[in-house]
Design a protein that fits this description.
The chain is an alpha+beta fold and about 270 residues long. It has two domains: about 130 residues, Probable inorganic polyphosphate/atp-NAD kinase, domain 1 (Rossmann fold), CATH 3.40.50.10330; about 130 residues, Tumour Suppressor Smad4, CATH 2.60.200.30. Helices cover about 15% and strands about 40% of the residues. The protein has five helices and 19 strands. A six-stranded antiparallel β-sheet has the order 8-7-18-15-10-11. Strands 14-13-12-9-16-17 form a six-stranded antiparallel β-sheet. A five-stranded parallel β-sheet has the order 3-2-1-4-5, with helices on both faces. The longest helix is centred in the first third of the chain and has 11 residues.
Length: about 270
């Protein structure tokens, strides 16, 4: 079995968690370490984009999980060292117990919907949380024409548009007023960031659909941001298409269902 470690940038505490896990793993487990680990431990490392493993253990916040999902190949088990850690399965107090479960095979691999993003017909990237199309300049609205499966929906001026997966519906999209979508629902949420008018509202479309955003205006520069990790520059007249990716992301889960995690991470202190 191959186990890879990816940690948050400039995080010696994360490296110490790696050491704790190495003391537990059986000697026949092959280990792979991303470059950031090598800044703190004397191990041979590899670039995150070259990692392919049976299990990828991320140690950090949600950003570390998103980085691993974009760059590396393999099911992800997240250990939370961040403020929220909605995408992480393990909290610091249960690291050892969870790793023993991992060794025993007491876990489940779940598939998570990803989005594939095209610009003018060219594939440009994938994401598991959301695609954000946003003005390149702060406080500058942009013009958007919205289509679903080639059918014109509306046009608006706003700071941006968010297209989210069910997993991403509890993140930026929710903050922008978008709906929460359960993981069992194969759908995408479209939400708008600070629209100029109230006419256009958040919407949910089938995961089998293609959402199309045509950039309006004249000489308006914008960015596509994938999971907060990758930026793509676009301009007026460009057509952005977002559809369900054929290849899902994979996560390792051990105990919590969506509703438990939602209460623990987002609602806080809610009891039955």
């Amino acid at each position: 079995m191959k186990v890879a470690f990816i940690i948050r940038k400039d995080c010696p505490r994360c490296a110490r968690i790696v050491e704790r896990i190495l003391n537990i793993l059986p000697p026949d487990v092959e280990t792979i370490f991303e470059d950031e680990v090598g800044k703190h431990l004397k191990v041979q490392t590899t670039n995150v984009g070259s990692i392919a493993a049976d299990i990828i253990i991320t140690i950090g916040g949600d950003g570390t999980v998103l980085l691993a999902s974009q760059k590396a190949k393999g099911p992800i088990l997240g250990i939370n060292m961040g403020a929220l850690g909605f995408l992480s399965e393990i909290e610091l107090g249960s690291v050892e117990a969870s790793i023993y479960k991992l060794i025993r095979g007491d876990y489940t691999i779940v598939e998570v919907m990803r989005l594939a993003v095209y610009v003018n017909g060219e594939m440009r990237g994938k994401c598991i949380n959301e695609t954000v199309i946003h003005s390149k300049m702060i406080s500058k609205v942009r013009s958007f024409k919205v289509y679903v499966d080639g059918n014109f929906v509306d046009k608006t001026r706003a700071d941006g548009v968010i297209i989210a997966t069910p997993m991403g519906s509890t993140s930026y999209s929710m903050s922008a007023g978008g709906p929460i979508i359960l993981p069992s629902a194969e759908a995408m949420a479209l939400a708008f960031i600070a629209p100029v008018t109230l006419r256009i509202r958040p919407m949910v479309v089938s995961s089998n659909s293609t959402a199309q955003i045509v950039m309006g205006g004249t000489n308006e520069e914008s960015l596509i941001i994938l999971d907060g990790q990758q930026e793509i520059e676009i301009k007026s007249g460009d057509r952005v298409e977002i559809r369900k990716c054929v290849e899902p992301a994979k996560f390792i889960t051990m105990r919590r269902n969506f509703f438990t995690k939602f209460r623990e991470k987002l609602l806080k202190d809610v009891v039955n």
